[in-house]
Amino acid sequence: MDYIENGGDAIQTYPLLATMEDKEEVAKLREALLRYCELDTLAMVKVLEKLRKECMTDDELEKISLENTKKLLLKWKNDKNIQELKEFYDTKSFSGILGVERREMSHSNFIAWILNDMESHNLGQFAIKQLLDLLLENGEHNIKKSSINIAINFNDLYKSLLLGTYKLEDISVIVEDPLKFGQNKGGRIDIIVSMSIKIKTGYDEDFSKEIYSESNKVNLIIENKVDSPEHNNQTEKYHDYYKKDNKYKNDLNIFVYLTPNDDKPENEQFIKISYQQIADNILERALNQDISDRVEFIINEYLLSLRKPSKKGQIMAVKSEEEELLKIFWDENSELLNTAFNILRRSDDSFNELYNATQEKQTRDNTKYNFNSLSRLSKSKLPLELVRKYIHDNADASLEDIRNKFGFSFSEVKSIKDANLGKPKLYDKLMLSNNEEIVVMNNCWSDNISKVISNARKLNYQIEEVN
């Protein structure tokens, strides 16, 4: 016997040590018993720690080591990340100085500026194409439903958006577009982006020129929310208006609900997009484009304004740099913070919610995975290894094939030609046999990993979950 699996094995095995003559076998058995006892003892220690944490009395809290607290406070004081975060939060954006950080109109104007390909940012159509990617990822069903009974074919549109084989022309962006008839007359939609889209259909006989379809009109009708929720059935009224207005009713109308909060639009045809998604997928990636120092400054100023908390503490979005600093700050100071929350919540109920939130964070799913001789892969690295093996095993693997087999979304695995890459740590590159380079993103797997694993197992991939 080379190992002990449970208490029963240990009880039966221990007496054998007194009668066995093979010294090498005795040594193996003794080591196996020690390993089992070590794990058994560790389990009891963990149970005790949990009980102490959950059942700590006021008297026990008073006995928290003063010396330990002093050490933790000294560590806090000398933490270099504290100073970086302090500089971050002491810095006011220009809109903050003007007092318009939470004004809806200010945000609508900025969104309109970044989406307009004729504006001075020189990003061209980068932002509007990134937004179309976001809408396809978050609202494929909504777009398909909106395309019914109009000239554009959804399957052709979907494929062209997925592959980037389309042209946009005549883009116009209007802020506060007034509703001009019916019961909704006098109301205003926050932003409307109108454009013509042409879908690539092939090449001419000499393969020297690309051929595109007739142009189709597309409108992005954006209801922007900052601090206030939807009221008076706004999305229902706006949807009804644009479906009936002669100017728009024959177009592909894509309805968008932009919000920093968790609230949902009342009309199900509106695709919900968060300000955090705008920050991650458009603004931060725009900073990696060929832009002037002035445009970079403007975008960074706007990103700075998004982290201004509302009166209820709601933050619209954070930069990736800030997020990384906060993660490091938490990892290095969680013991001190938990001690403080634990004590303060006895005298102030407002700390209870904050304390419970920190405990929930510490119990988040940190499952690791063993796959293909690789151990303890994180959620961000497992998909990369799945794709790597699939490419190795299937010489004719294509991007579309990979997406379909594993259930990857458009933003998770994409052609490098269609990717607007951020920092290198956010993605990994792989090469297909046809020399097409693809990227596997590693910052967006929290919601989709279960489906990806399920699909991988259908391919007989052996994936072991470990803690």
Overall description:
This protein has 467 residues and is of the alpha+beta class. The chain folds into 4 domains: 7-51; 56-93 and 317-362, no CATH class; 98-306, no CATH class; 368-466, no CATH class. It is built from 17 helices and 12 strands. The chain has helices spanning 7-13, 23-54, 58-62, 66-78, 80-90, 94-98, 104-115, 126-146, 154-163, 234-244, 275-286, 293-306, 320-344, 350-362, 382-393, 399-406, 449-458; strands at residues 166-178, 188-203, 210-212, 216-224, 252-259, 271-274, 368-371, 374-377, 413-415, 427-431, 437-441, 463-466. The strands form 3 sheets. Strands 1, 2, 3, 4, 5 and 6 form a 6-stranded mixed sheet that branches. Strands 8-7-12 form a 3-stranded antiparallel sheet, with helices on one face. Strand 7 and strand 8 (374-377) form a beta hairpin. Helix 4 (66-78) runs antiparallel to helix 13 (320-344) and helix 8 packs antiparallel against helix 11. The longest helix is centred in the N-terminal third of the chain and has 32 residues, at 23-54. The mean pLDDT is 80.
Brief overview, please?
This protein has 467 residues and is an alpha+beta fold. The protein has helices at 7-13, 23-54, 58-62, 66-78, 80-90, 94-98, 104-115, 126-146, 154-163, 234-244, 275-286, 293-306, 320-344, 350-362, 382-393, 399-406, 449-458, and strands spanning 166-178, 188-203, 210-212, 216-224, 252-259, 271-274, 368-371, 374-377, 413-415, 427-431, 437-441, 463-466. It folds into 4 domains: 7-51; 56-93 and 317-362, no CATH class; 98-306, no CATH class; 368-466, no CATH class.
